[in-house]
Amino acid sequence: MNHYIGIDIGGTSVNVGVVDDTGVTLAKQSRPSVLNDGLEAGLRRVYDAVEQTVSESGIGWDRIQAIGAAAPGTMDIHTGVIFQPFNLPGWEDLPLRDRLADWFGKPTVLHNDANAAAYGEYWVGTGRHARSLMFWTLGTGIGGGIVIDGHLLTGAHSHGGECGHMIIQMDGGQRSPHGIHGALELYASAKALVRRCHEELDAGNKSLLAEWLKTGEELTPKLIAAAAEEGDQLADDLIMDTARYLAIGTINMMHTINPEMVVLGGAMTFGQNETELGRRFLAHLKGVVKAHAFPILAERTIIDYATLGSDAGFIGAAGCARAAVDSDVGVPVSIRS
Q1: What is the CATH number of domain 3-120+310-325?
Q2: What global pTM score does this model have?
Q3: Could you say which of 55, 67, 279, 295 is the most buried, measured as most Cβ atoms within 10 Å of its Cβ?
């Protein structure tokens, strides 16, 4: 059986795993952020994490077929260069794919982190029985990924699937520091939820959160969720509004690519199906979709939470590496041998 290395590089952590041909993880580990280390020290941390994970897997390097790396920000997937990773200062214009290929001597591919997570969920996660899916990753911002018939949609310029930047409000839309004003992530991301909550509290609206913040608590999506679970109406309304905004983006994607499944993952999913709040969040999103999408799409499109959690990125990256070296699988991407 062949084996693959998946690397998911983020501003808060580096997640690495050794994955077999069926998507089973043999060994994995997470290292702290590379954010403040500088480029060379950060790369060294990635190399060390890979080497230790391979050692722990019990699989010799001769059985590792390829490496898949996932990173944030803008990039050229075909040349393997990261242009602007917003949460990795000093990594701009970095030929990451080639640096990894040269260090380990293995065929290597590079993908956007949200695309890799989408492929992981498609391969062995929530979408493993689907032929197509659209994946939302809900965190500080909103990422997206699209898989159709086993192929990641990366686009002509490696920016396919950037669904969090679709514009849902034109005139008077929320302003963006990146110039994409009125985009979905300015309304439905974790950062947006906190901003909207501050606006409501500053306007004098009553909430448990106002009292909690007086004790030195930091306003976070987790704190807002805790207030909602305590019956706080403002907190609950804010979270349900987030579901409504995300539903608008979901409807747009359903009407554009008609995926078999829409999958929600990332850090801000409110406990998913394990909590009453998470179940209501998903139900509210589905209700808005049902009210505004074409009826046949609303009826037949499966909308559910992701199942791989923080492992989705490295599993998906490993799956992309497998696809790149296996002509029977085939994800179109340039691989450095």
Answers
A1: 3.30.420.40
A2: 0.93
A3: 67
